[in-house]
Amino acid sequence: RPHKPLNIEVTEASYAWSYSYAEDFVLFDYKIKNIGDRTLNDVYMGIYVDCMVCFDCFGNNGYTDDHAGFLHTYPGIYGDCEFEDTVFIAWIADDDGDPDIIHGDGKLHPCPHVSATRIVRTPATELDVSFNWWIGNGDPSLDFGPRERSEVGRRKELFRDFRTGGLGTPEGDVNKYYVLSNQEFDYNQVYTASIQPNDTLWIYPDQDLAWDYSDGYDTRYLLSFGPFDIQPGQTLPISFAYVMGENLHKVPGNRDNLLNNPDAYLANLDFSDLAKNAIWAGWIYDNPGVDTDGDEYFGEAHVCCSESTIISIDSVESDPLVIDTIWEYGKCDSFFYIGDGVPDFRGASPPPPPVLWLEPGDGYIRIRFNGTRSETEEDLFLHDVDFEGYRIYIARDEREESYSLMASWDKDDYCLYVYNDSNNTWELTGIPLTLEKLQDMYNDSTLDPLAYSRTSPYSPSNEPGVLVYFEPQDYNTSDLGLPGYIKKLYPYQPYPSSINPDSARSEELTEDGYLKYFEYEFIIDNLLPTVPYWINVTAFDFGSPESGLTSLESSKTVGAQNVYPYPKGGSRDISDYNVVVYPNPYRIDADFRGLGFEGRADTDRPDDRVRAIHFTNLPPQCTIRVFTLDGDLVKEIEHDIDSSDPNSSHDSWDMITRNAQMVVSGLYYWSVESSNGQVQVGKLAIIM
Q: CA 338 to CA 299: how far, in whole Å?
């Protein structure tokens, strides 16, 4: 029949994060709008995934041994308690991870990982969800998928013949709508050969092929939900996460269980990384414990109680005997695991980087930074300040891999491990604690955390029977002000009366209005004044050691500043400057690029597009001109940089003339004219 458009408009936004806890999933947010003039009734939506899990999927027929399944829940540990977290993910993976297949390059490239889809938002809470998988194949006998018998299951109706000769691929709109809405929840593919002829729900698979279906094939799946109506002009949302999990296959030889013992096969699959990533995807979509819309609902929480004691045992009834036991819990804590239902699309992030200033000198750079926000802003998930320290980086170009660590400072704090004799394990508790807090907590002013270890623990005198030990959080490089270390500009400045500079006292502020308490400096010397350096200061937190979230650090490259280690001036008078031009002469055979003086980060550009002649010791506002010996103007450069900019005394010429031609060999004049009309003149030789 002719195509009948639904008259819908679909808008998609995708979200990805580079942080370690969120780098293995992508969130997709769709808005589906009815732009027609009639109501769309009984609408179903679905996510169709045809995924191949392999290194070389076609060269070694790697796409023919994938299998699919569904994971409803996964155990989650919160404190001393274990809960079943709802992950609700459809997954697909290779049957064994290809551990011993030699590829075309003569090497092994195993693929033991898993990909999955998790729905995190639907247009309504009460919907029918379906999970269907099938094997797509042009041969009808191999085109297979689980199918329910007639008039059984959640949607009791007659068996539908796809009229393709197979049980798998639904061809045509009517069949596709049927699969979207059939309310089936297919068994995991590994169970195909285990379906019995007397099964009351599932059609008995062809036994000549059932084993082949079970051990993997070219499989795809559909995760769908509905029904709902879309009125004209109405927009409905749907959000889902495409999630990856590492190292699903960890047990060698587990494939041997696939056909004969599918329960053992599934039990040997490690879904821990996939489940962790799926949970984080849900948390980022809707932050747990965050009241986004201000209605005082923060989501749902687990309550975990430990250190319980029986305080009474009474008989409530004698016939039959009923015993009532009353417990007293010494320690209870709550953990939000679901948000308030309003999307956030925000993840845990590092502290904001400090405000950064660079002051160049003759062969050195003074770095000044202020960390008011870095040290006082609360973490989104921890609901507390998790600032740990700063790191200073330097590079010769702006590429991230070029940055080298120059200095680091972090708090003197420690992770606390407590021995749990009930399960003979050491348990990490809470957030890192400073030395002062530990000494105060255990009433021991001489406590040295580094004097104790797992094999030689500390037994606090004020907590008999308790055993603990400590591990430093990060490097505990906390000696501010020593030579070669980060220095506090105002080491004796007390903590401010307010962290809002507008409310702080005047004696607590610098001349430019920043809080003195959070002011730092660091000097890098022995630098070449003729080349640029990129500098950045990052802030990092202590993560969440208890939940396994590693420390997060702000970007090395975002906010980085480049500067030449040469003094800058603020005068408009050209007589206050001695303009320097380099390299002079410029020799093409000097291989400036090979020596790292040109085009360090521009690896995709030819040599003639990265050449440069530099002018330094310039006034902030001036005009640079280059002339031939006959007085013809070759190039004019307007240099206009605010005097506060660390590069206000520097500019460069790309050796392209004002007529967009490459400059030729010769002797040239250069001139620098200041804004008040004063001029300096010099000569420049170019040997091409």
A: 5
Task: Report the alpha-carbon distance of residue 546 to residue 80 in Å, rounded.
Answer: 11
| Helix boundaries (H) for 215-271 | 257-260, 262-267
User: What number of other Cβ atoms are within 10 A of residue 573's Cβ?
Assistant: 12
CA distances from 433 to 389, 439, 449 (A): 14, 10, 11
Q: Using the predicted structure, report yes or no on whether residue 28 has a pLDDT greater than 80.
A: yes
Q: Which of 289-293, 570-574, 630-634 has the highest mean pLDDT?
A: 630-634
Q: Which is nearest to 650 in space by CA: 682, 606, 612?
A: 612
The token duo for 82 is 């274990």
Q: How many helices (H) and strands (E) does the chain have?
A: 7, 30
CB contact set of 551 (below 8 Å; sequence gap of 6+): 388, 474, 540, 541, 542, 543
Structure tokens at 589: 């055979």
Tokens of 452: 């104790």
DSSP string computed for 16-84 = ---SGGGTTEEEEEEEEEE-SSSPEEEEEEEEEE----SSSTTTT-GGGGEEEEEEEEEEEEETTEEEE
What contacts 261, CB < 8 A, 6 or more positions away?
Answer: none
CA distance 394 to 402: 8
Measured over the CA atoms of residue 627, residue 628, residue 633 and residue 637, the dihedral's sign is negative
> 330-358 as b/e, with b when 16 or more CB fall inside 10 Å?
eeeeebbbbbbeebbebbbbbbbbbbbbb
Least confident range of 108-117, 119-128, 273-282: 119-128
Backbone angles phi and psi of 74, in degrees to 5: -150, 140
AA identity, residue 564: Y
Q: For residue 420, what pLDDT is reported? A: 87
Q: Are 180 and 186 in contact (CB under 8 A)?
A: no
First to last CA, the chain: 71
pTM attached to this predicted model: 0.75
- Set out the domains of the chain in order of their start, with CATH numbers: 8-285 (no CATH), 300-338 (no CATH), 355-411+473-562 (2.60.40), 574-687 (2.60.40.1930)
79 close to 306: Cβ distance less than 8 angstroms: yes
Task: Look at residues 346, 114, 369 and name the one whose alpha carbon lies nearest to residue 244.
Answer: 114
Alpha-carbon 654 to chain mean position: 38
Q: Which of 605, 608, 615 is nearest to 635 (CA)?
A: 615
Tokens of residue 10, six digits: 């679909």
